[in-house]
UniProtKB/TrEMBL annotation:
Region (Disordered): 154-174
PANTHER family, A to Z: NAD(P)H NITROREDUCTASE YDGI-RELATED (PTHR43673), NITROREDUCTASE (PTHR43673:SF2)
Protein's name in the database: NADH dehydrogenase
Pfam families: Nitroreductase (PF00881)
Family assignment from sequence similarity: Belongs to the nitroreductase family.
Organism listed in the record: Caldovatus sediminis
Cofactor(s) this protein requires: FMN
Length: 174
């Protein structure tokens, strides 16, 4: 098993997938890692829709502005912020921010777990939110915030350039 830092360094956005399903045990491991993600007040104010049918993957790809690799991935996870769950404890800040953070941290854990297992993934944030919500019949207040395409990668993209740490981290002002 690779170290955490090796997993972080190995993660890439795969946009081509083999026509091979993810093994059930591997998918279960990804989902179990996701559940371990920290969340505000440990509420886990998110929902995840597991999509494996061709028809729904095609519709998600269309809702994602024609990003066809979403349809090509054998498994797609749609991470949704559950605003009502967070609102009950934290009010509007919980609904507007904490539920969103909970969902995206869970998606990050799932993506890193997939990488650790040798799977490819691609995070998709560009999509018609209302269309995805209708397609997946989401409850009121449950908002799709990230689509994660998962599968056995058919490509190994090169490491994209990254900004140096010094450009991103600033010491506190005195």
């Amino acid at each position: 098993m690779p170290s955490f830092f090796e997993v972080v360094a190995a993660r890439r956005s795969a946009r081509a997938f083999l026509a091979r399903p993810i093994e059930p045990a591997a998918l279960r491991s990804v989902l179990e890692a996701m559940v371990e993600a920290p969340s505000a007040g440990n509420l886990q104010a998110y929902r995840v829709i597991l999509v494996e049918t061709r028809e729904t993957r095609n519709a998600l790809a269309e809702a994602a502005h024609g990003q066809d690799f979403v349809a090509a991935a054998p498994t797609v996870l749609v991470f949704c912020a559950d605003a009502p769950r967070s609102r009950a404890r934290y009010g509007e800040r919980g609904a507007a921010l904490f539920a969103l953070q909970d969902a995206t941290i869970a998606a990050s854990y799932a993506q890193l777990a997939a990488t650790a297992l040798g799977l490819g993934s691609c995070w998709v944030g560009a999509f018609d939110e209302a269309r995805v919500a209708r397609l997946l019949r989401l409850a009121a207040g449950v908002r799709p915030v990230a689509i994660l395409a998962l599968g056995h990668a058919a490509e190994r993209p090169p490491r994209p350039p990254r900004r140096p740490v010094e450009a991103l981290v600033q010491a506190e002002a005195h």
